[in-house]
Structures are given as C-alpha cells and as structure tokens.
Amino acid sequence: MHSAKVPLQNPPIKWAEGHKGVFNIEVQAVSSVHTQDNHLEKFFTLCHSLESQVTFPIRVLDQKISEMALEHELKLSIICLNSSRLEPLVLFLHLVLDKLFQLSVQPMVIAGQTANFSQFAFESVVAIANSLHNSKDLSKDQHGRNCLLASYVHYVFRLPELQRDVPKSGAPTALPDPRYHTYGRTSAAAVSSKLLQARVMSSSNPDLAGTHSAADEEVKNVMSSKIADRNCSRMSYYCSGNSDVPSSTTAPRPASKKHFHEELALQMVVSTGMVRETVFKYAWFFFELLVKSMAQHVHNMDKRDSFRRTRFSDRFMDDITTIVNVVTSEIAALLVKPQKENEQAEKMNISLAFFLYDLLSLMDRGFVFNLIRHYCNQLSAKLNNLPTLISMRLEFLRILCSHEHYLNLNLFFMNADTAPTSPCPSISSQVINELFN
C-alpha cells in the first residue's frame, strides 16, 4: 500500500493514531488469456513463432532469440514445462498437450535444418501426467485416474493436423480449424473463425450446428476475403510463387508425414528408464490416447468398411505386440517382488484388458486374439503362485468377455458357410480355445 500525502486542511484536522491506515488493498491479476507463468509463456511464444511468419530475433520475456537458436530454446522450453506452476498448467493443460502432440508428429525445417521434437514432446507429456497424478490438490476417479487427463482424452483430444501449404493468391481459402489455439496469440483468421463458429453452433449442444442466417453468410464471405488477403500479405513470397524466404523470417514446414498413433506407439516402445516406468504406471492414459487416435485415423482415412488387416501398418502392429508383451512382463515382475505391489499390478492388468477390449473393435481380431494368448502364456510362465495367476487371468478375461462380439467370435462352426458374416472380415482365430486350457 502506498501512503499518500495528506493535503493541508482548513481548519486543521486531528488524525487518530497519526493517520494510521485502516485497511490494506492487494491487487492480484487474474487472466484467462495470459498464462502468468514464465515457462508456459516461453513455450507458447516459441510455438507461435513456428506457426506463423515472424521477424527474428524474437523477444521472449527478457531474452532475444535468433533463428539459429530457436530449435535449442524450444527444446529447453518443452523440457521445462513440468516446472510450471500447477494452477496455470491446469488452466492451459489442453493447449499444452495439443501443442506437444502437434510437435510430436510434425518435425519442422528451421534455418534449413530439420528439427525433430518427438522424443522431447513425449517425455514432457509423461512428466506432466506424472505431476498431475502425484498432486494432492487434483481429484481422481474411483479407478485412481486423474480426472483432468481422463476428461482431456474423452472430450478434447483430436488428431493433430499437419500444416497445409498456403494457397496461392486468388485461390479459395478455407477457414482454419478454430478448435484450440494459443492464448490470445492467434491470427485474425483464427479469431474471426472462432467467432463465426460460436454464432452458428447450437446453444444447447455444441456438436449440433444451428441455422445460418443471411447476416452470418455475409459476415463469413467478408471475413474469408480478408483472410485470403492477410495470408497473401504475410507470406507474399509464397503467394507470388517465390520459394525463397528472406533470412529475417522463418518458414517452418513439415519435414515428413507421420501418423500420431504410430508415433505414440513408437515412443512407448523406445522409452527407457524412468520414462518407461512412468508410462506403464499410468498406462491407462496412453492406452486411451492410442485407441482414440486409432479410431479417428480410421474415420478420417475412411477405412471403416475396409479389411481390418489393412487399416494399420505392419510396423504399428509390431509395436502394439511389443507394448503388450512389455506390460505383461511388468505385471508379472510386480507380482513376484518380495514386497508385492498387487494394487499397481492389478491396475495395469485392468488397463491392458480394456486396451485389448477396444482393439477388438478396431484391429484385426485374429491379431488381437493372438495378443490375448501371448498374455496368458507369458503370465503362466512367470507366475508360480496359482491363486494370483488365476485371479489376474479371470479379471482380464472378464473384461474381454464383456465385448459384444467376444462370445460370437469364440463359437465353433462346422464350416465357413454356417458362420455368420462379418462386415469387417478378420484373420480366422484358430487358437482361442487355448485361453481356457
């Protein structure tokens, strides 16, 4: 509190206790736009520099960053995300995870060099998940899952979209995806698009589109023309057909095309040390990310009616096999330790069962049944305690048996003509009865 000089009074006034203050005023800045955290501020600012044309050097807080130092500084900011204060991290969690997932699948060309942030982004996600689970201030559901992460996967997560080429001058311009952007550093196009979508959405259900009025159409046409002009003015070199970029600006572009589910599975496989331990400790989160990204991939690529064996690559299926084998080994290792960590082993066992349960709806079912067989065989070979083995297998199979097609897929038929047809044929499973031997 700043004391103000009391003006002279006429007639004189006597102040009680020597003009002592009666109360103090404390002003605390509250904002839903600015992060008020240096680590988040730096991360979002550097991400913004990748997404748009900027002039170097750029200023981040009290630091000036050149184009040559951008890659190094961005990697440092990704690593330091876990050091952010909990409150702003929670408030901007969906933005942080969206940006990290975007960086994991879209390596950039910065100053003529390819920069790959996949490993750094994945390890940062793992560290954030660990921090949120360990926080006593955040709620968990009855299964011990962090409610924020569960809500993010269920309601927010969507496959990151790769940057598209900027259209040439005069070409029709589609409005960018207005779903999530950084906190107030969006371009005018994103802001106008977000306002337009807010007007045409149903007030009761955001997923249901409302009716478009003539005024909305007029505004949309006007904004579209302005967006096209702005894009061509900001990237005039591309709009004019010139591929050369001045040295004072950066033109990050995709170095290669990746699928998010493949990259996530790969990072889970190659992770080591504390990162791998944390991944499988909170396996439910990464399993649900995998399943949802797989489902969205099938939908986006219009593979719902294609053969299941062709939906995903052989390399991805190999990674899934490795993940299931590693998790099964980890479950067995926890159960045979002197200080049996039964609770953690049971959680991992249930998470793995639900993961395979979901895979039955997405992948080749013969492949999934082989994973189930390997799980049972591997657990039987490593566990000598019969009651524990039976308990784990029964809980695992109880979850799988609740799948709507599980029993039908295990029925025996005299020949193929008597078997019911499947809209998505799978490789025939010939070893399912071994699960119950």
Automatic annotation (TrEMBL):
A GO cellular component annotation in the UniProt record: cell leading edge
GO molecular function, one term: guanyl-nucleotide exchange factor activity
GO process annotations (BP): positive regulation of establishment of T cell polarity; positive regulation of T cell migration; small GTPase-mediated signal transduction
Name of this protein: Dedicator of cytokinesis 8
Gene that this polypeptide is encoded by: DOCK8
